[in-house]
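Researcher: Go.
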Amino acid sequence: MTSEHSIPPQYLIGQTPGWRVNHRINSALPGYVIISSIADTNSLADLPAEALASMGTVFAKVQHALSDVLGAERVYIGRYGHSPGYPIHFHAIPIYRWVEELFWKDDRYRMLERFSHGPGETPTDGAELTLFVWREFCERPDPPPVKGPSVTESISMLRQAIQF
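Model: Structure:
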């Protein structure tokens, strides 16, 4: 990661020889975590063997902490983006019951139902909830109020729970 994109220390949660875990800087959603490669590559195929070998363990510890410590009902982990200067990274997005309730109360997101063809397996899916989190908790200048620990409190809780 270039120095212009360094993570402020208050957002750092933990680090292994291959991975850095931090709270997403511009997210008002407590527990929205970024898992970034230490290696300066944007390709999974170019990661060192040690980083690839530890990837599952890092992801599992993050998911466990988000679920069991912060109370997320679901955790979506995915790779998004390919911005210059950033190494390959993954977003770990916690979906709390109160987040899904906000989603269902917001009529703007009912428009998404127009894009489906037939009944889905569930009333909503990870893509719709991820979009909701991005738009409402990361991009809005006035995000919805948080229920539960704040971002700062969640970072502290995650530091305790995610020990490498």
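Model: The mean pLDDT is 91.
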